[in-house]
Amino acid sequence: MSFAPERMVLTPEHVQIRLTPAGPCGRFLALVVDALFSVGLGIVLTRLAHLVLPASVERAVALTLMFAITWSYHVYFEVRRHGQTPGKALAGLRVVDGRGLPLSFPQSLVRNLFRMVDWLPAFYGAGVIAALLAPYHRRFGDIVADTLVIRETRALAYSAQLAPARRFNSLRTPGVLRRIRHRIGLEEREFLLTLCWRAAAMDPRACFDLMEEVGAYYRARLEIDDPHLSGENIVRGVTAIVYEK
C-alpha cells in the first residue's frame, strides 16, 4: 500500500507546518465507527418516536430523523468538534482546510454532499479509488472542498511557565475569548506553543521582531483593540488561553 507524502503548508507568519495525510486504512476504520454510531443513534431516536407518537405519523417522523442524521452527522461533528467525528477521534484523524486551517461550515457541507459521488457504484467505490490515486489520499469530496484528512500529531506538553500567569483583561473579554476559541485551530496552537517554547533560546532582537510580527497578525485576526499589549503579550496570552483546561 502506498503512503501519501507529508504536505507542507505555510502559515501567514511564514512558518512551515507539516501535515501527515491519513491513509485509507485509518479512514476506513473511522468510516465504520461513524456508520455504526449514526445508525445506532437513528435506531434509538426511531424507537423513541415509536413510543411517543401515533402510528399515523411515526413512519414519516422516523424516515425524517434517519435522513437528518445521515446528512447532518458528519457536518455537525466536523464543524463543532474541530474536524473530528467520533470515528475520526478514535482513529486519531482530523479534517482540516487544505492549508491546515480549521474546517469551515461550507467546506464540511460540500465534502459531505459529495459522499453521494464517492459512494458510487457501491460502498465508497469511487471514493476509495480517488483516495488511492489522488495526492494526499483525498476523495472527491476533499478535492472539491479543498480539505485534507490528517493524522493527529502528539502535542507538545504545555507548561504555564511558557505563558506567564498574568491575565490580560483585554484578551479575556467574551468577544475575544470566543474568537480565540473559534478561529485558532490545532496547527496554529502547535505553532504558538512552539514559538513560546523556543523564545528563550532565540536571539533577543530576533525574538522581539518575530513576536511583534506574530502578535500584529493575531491582533488583527482576533480584533484585539488594546494598544498597550505588546506582540509578546498577545502571543503568550493567546497561548495560555487556548491551552487552558
Question: What does this 3D model show about the protein?
Answer:
It is a single chain. With 245 residues, the chain is mainly α. It has 2 domains: 145 residues, no CATH class; 83 residues, no CATH class. 58% of the residues lie in helices and 7% in strands. Strands 1-2 form a two-stranded antiparallel sheet. A two-stranded antiparallel ribbon has the order 3-4. β1 and β2 form a beta hairpin. It starts with 6 loop residues before the first strand and ends with a helix. The model has no long low-confidence stretch (mean pLDDT 83).
Give unreliable regions as ranges: none
Structural class call reads mainly alpha
**Residue share in helix:** 55-70%
Distance between the amino and carboxyl termini: 39 Å
| Whole-number tally of structural domains | 2
Give the number of DSSP strands: 4
Q: How many strands, which pairing sense, and closed or not: the largest β-sheet?
A: 2 strands, antiparallel
Percent of sequence in beta strands: 5-15%
Structure annotation, total helices: 11
* Strand line-up in the sheet with most strands: 1-2
Give the CA-based shape: globular
Rg to the nearest angstrom?
22 Å
The H-and-E topology, N to C, reads as EEHHHEHHHHEHHHH
Arithmetic mean of pLDDT: 83
